[in-house]
Amino acid sequence: MIELKTPQEIQQMRPAGKFVGQILSDLKKMTTVGTNLLEIDNFVKNAIENRAGATSCYVDYAPDFGTGPFAHYICTSVNDAVLHGIPYDYNLKNGDLLSLDLAINVDGWVGDSAISFVVGDANPEDLRLIKSTEEALAAGIEQARSGNRLGDISAAIGDVAASYGYDVNLEFGGHGVGHIMHGDPHVPNNGRAHHGYRLRPGLVIAIEPWFLATTDEIYQDENDGWTLRSVDGSRGAHTEHTIAITDGDPIILTARDE
Q: How far is CA 207 from the centre of its chain?
């Protein structure tokens, strides 16, 4: 069921969004060649434990698209992994493409966001891939206005992917956000403009373009039962914000200090 938030409830969601955005900004600054993925996970764990009213949306989360409960505080997806990457004992290498996806509940409201960046020296194609997801996110947010349709967001994302020559996987996309992390509606990363649910003030959604360099097919890593990887080993990038639709411009609740 799609739930619409009141202006007061959207204000109540701001602390969660700000907290998530700040953690991701801090992680991008501190992550270097040699940083261990478990260090990143522990940084988030400590941040949550030191913030009154904050709880992880990931620990013990057990949806049907995973294998068993998720046991960590953040998703860390490296290179050919693009979604749901489980932190493990791995020291990041020069040139690794890292995607971080984070959702936290603060005082009963969720903020959900993701960033991708290269550690150390960057391959131009990796930067191009990351840029495409950032531009697609901006295009999707621009369409997130009252009176438009859900398909307008999806089509804007898909158009950016096509302009870069990337195919789009429709298995996973954006979603409603509120008291829970994953709610209605589903927000595909491609679609038909002027079709679908009519956007209304109070709708809060996560918009999250993710693309792979040379394929749109993924598989679930059997070793951890969660991490989603490209079938051909090509790299992936993922960018996400939680936004609120209003009578005017959309509000980016997870805005980050860049």
A: 7
195 is in an annotated binding site: no
For the entire predicted model, the pTM comes to 0.97
| C-beta of residue 129 within 8 angstroms of C-beta of residue 200 | no
208 is in an annotated binding site: yes
Q: At 217, which amino acid appears?
A: E
Q: Confirm or deny that 112 is annotated as ligand binding.
A: yes
Strands 109-118 and 97-106: antiparallel
**The CATH number of domain 5-250, selected from 3.40.50.1970, 3.10.20.340, 3.90.230.10, 1.10.4160.10:** 3.90.230.10
Q: What is the pLDDT along the chain (258 residues), one digit of tens a residue?
A: 999 999 999 999 999 999 999 999 999 999 999 999 999 999 999 999 999 999 999 999 999 888 889 999 999 999 999 999 999 999 999 999 999 999 999 999 999 999 999 999 999 999 999 999 999 999 999 999 999 999 999 999 999 999 999 999 999 999 999 999 999 999 999 999 999 999 999 999 999 999 999 999 999 999 999 999 999 999 999 999 999 999 999 999 999 986
The answer to the question of whether 64 is labelled as a binding residue is: no
